[in-house]
Amino acid sequence: MTLFGSDSQYREKLSIIRIFSLMPLFSGLLSGCVCRWFAVNLPMTLGKGGDFAGDIDVFACLKRWPNDLSPWPRGLAPWPSDTPKKGLFYRTWEVKVAKFYKDGQTKSLKRGKVRNIMSQLDVHRKFGSPNVTLLDVCLCEPGLLGQGASPFPQSAQAAIVERLTEVRRDGFGYQLLVFGHEDVQGDDVGLQAVSFGKGPFARSTVELAYPDVTAPREPLASLASEIDRFWEANHTAGPFQQMVVFCSSCKSLKIVSTKTDTDLCPDCGDDLVAQS
What we know:
The structure is a single chain. This protein is an alpha+beta fold. The protein has one domain (about 10-220). Helix content is about 20%, strand content about 30%. It contains 5 helices and 10 strands; from the N terminus they run ααββββαβαβββαββ. Strands 1, 2, 3, 4, 5, 6, 7 and 8 form an 8-stranded mixed sheet that branches. Strand 3 and strand 4 form a beta hairpin. The longest helix is centred in the middle third of the chain and has 17 residues, at about 155-170. The radius of gyration is 18 Å and the shape is globular.
């Protein structure tokens, strides 16, 4: 089964896992920063001292740029201004996945849903996230990116402009990631991604809006500390090889490989993607 043809109920989780298994996609999200660890699909109920419903799709601990070579415009870097040059900061993403078809049709990237999305981003902020970003992932039907034309149909462009207006108004970040695979006998083969920018700063993710940045607050700050301790005690490879997840069957954090072909809990064997 290809990612493009996967069950819509699980496509978002599968897409997130796929992104973090491929360095060209994963590295583009980091806006040039160094990653210490990242976690995916974490329930907010893990945060102590708060009663929040929902998940954090992607949660990352990053290291700021130590010099003036940062691709971020002055004053718009994703770390607080008082972060030391070798200091750490946190970022969370709300991920939405759309499908782009070769005939110009789109699915799940339409106008009219933006206020619900803004509400979800606001939950991140209330949870204590210091840097909240909307990531629109656009999965392209096999063959679309090989056609040479722009993959963005007019309806998708209108939806992106609508979202961009709202996230800028509310102080959130907005990134766009467009990629796809070839389908060979029902399996994904290769990687094609839209490249944004030129030269050394060209990447697979475009930064459409820069987020307002603050210091982390509770309960996210405590959750970040818990994940940090767990990562330091348990990881055996770097963030490009391993990631933090939560198993709802074990009710505990786990570290899993980004390169595995299965999405099973390493302890209980439960399907991490199918978990609610």
